[in-house]
Amino acid sequence: MTKIVILTGAGISAESGIETFRAEDGLWAQHRVEDVATPEGFARDPETVVNFYNDRRAQAAGVEPNAAHRALAQLEAQHGGEVVVITQNVDDLHERGGTQKLYHMHGYLNGALCATCDYRWAAPMKMAAGDACPECATPAARPDIVWFGEMPYDMDTLFQHLGEADIFAAIGTSGNVYPAAGFVAEARRGGAHTIEFNLEPSAVGNQFEEHRTGPASQTVTEWVAELLKR
User: Fold this and answer.
1) CB distance 79 to 2 below 8 Å
2) DSSP state, 20?
3) 135-151 confidence digits (pLDDT tens)
4) Is 43 among the annotated ligand-binding positions?
5) Distance between CA atoms of 124 and 102, rounded to whole angstroms?
6) Could you give the residue numbers annotated as active site?
7) In whole angstroms, what is the distance from residue 49 CA to residue 54 CA?
8) Of the residues 38, 51, 73, 179, which has the maximum number of CB atoms within 10 A of its CB?
9) What does the alpha-carbon distance between residue 23 and residue 184 come to, in Å, rounded to a whole number?
10) Domain ranges of the chain
């Protein structure tokens, strides 16, 4: 049975209306990375950081999964082999689109994390700086987001899946952020066929064997239809 491992990035959610970080007018143009996406920024000004992610959470709640999200869920449901989706995105559009086997390597907007005891729970729509942990009662709640300088989640498991992949697809990724940018090389070492879906080649686009250019809602939907006909 064919095992398909899929990495998704900001491009797949952008079609639903989620603001991206790296576009010219994106979130990094509006906010300094050091202020809202590092442990040091949180230590300096937790209220600003918490409010930044409150705004992202509210934005994500106001949009819907698009055809590409739904196509990946269809692939998972109907493909005879294993389908694993790894996302760099922190929104819940894959879940709402129907995907079941999903890894949020950079964390999850709808999650809260205790900086003291690592307990996780569902984040309220509006977190507040100094919210108490439900487990240890320490006022150390933070967004369950992997910030710059922190290790992405589930890396050992993700590399195991990459090594077992027959097909590796990257959808809407910039290729600028490691370790995710190294996933194509890892999959190729395991013998996977590699395919990139993007509006333009990514920073690691030359490492993919196949490219499909255009909106993910179109290219991914067509690809899934082809796979399910085999």
Assistant:
1) yes
2) P
3) 999 999 999 999 999 99
4) no
5) 22
6) 106
7) 9
8) 73
9) 23
10) 1-17+65-106+152-230, 19-62+108-145
Q: Going by CATH, does the domain composed of 19-62+108-145 fall within 3.20.20.30?
A: no
Distances (CA, A) of 26 to 14, 33, 173: 11, 12, 15
Residue 136 is labelled as binding a ligand: yes
Tokens of 169: 């697809």
Residue 59 vs residues 13, 18, 36, 99, 153: alpha-carbon distances, Å: 12, 7, 17, 21, 24
Pairwise CA distance, residues 109 & 158, whole Å: 20
Q: Read off φ and ψ for residue 22, nearest 5 degrees.
A: -100, -5
DSSP H or E run through 68: helix 67-78
Q: Is 42 annotated as a binding residue?
A: no
Tokens of 218: 């179109």
**Domain 1-17+65-106+152-230 identical in fold to domain 19-62+108-145:** no
Class in CATH terms, 1-17+65-106+152-230: alpha beta
- What is the pTM assigned to this prediction? 0.94
Query: DSSP secondary structure string, 136-166?
Result: T--S-EEEEE--TTSPPTTHHHHHHHHHH-S
Residue 158 marked ligand-binding: no
Structure confidence by residue, pLDDT tens digits, 81-117: 999 999 999 999 999 999 999 999 999 999 999 999 9
Is residue 168 within 8 A of residue 187, CB to CB? The reply is: yes
